[in-house]
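ingest -> validate -> predict -> emit
validate: passed (alphabet ok, no gaps, 127 aa)
predict: started
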Amino acid sequence: MSSKPGLSRTAAATPAGEQQQELLNQELRDHVQKAMEEAREARPKNTVTQYDRRQEEWKMFCHEKGFQDGELVTEEKLVFFLRTCVLGREYKSNQRSRNRTNQDGEIIVQTISHPTVRAYRSAIVNL
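emit:
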């Protein structure tokens, strides 16, 4: 039975094998970084603007809370952020739109809707 050429298990444990593995890991990280940069450059300008704003809000949230893993996105942290900082937030009307009112003429306070929450999720997951 012939063995295939390559590193044996003991060779990988040697300093030279560890150095080769570290170089390979660095090459993988470089490719991931390059792919992320290319994806960002291919995005429409408005998407980049919206993502940047929401991602900055996420980074500030993580810094204020003092998470040990920093800005790393996890399901638990994302749900915490959305529930405490995004959901229930009052809708900001622009100058051209009028506030909605009820039958008595009282202003109805509107909160942000599902598409806005999805936009936050997309921006943060894309970090």
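Residues 15-42 form the longest helix (28 residues).
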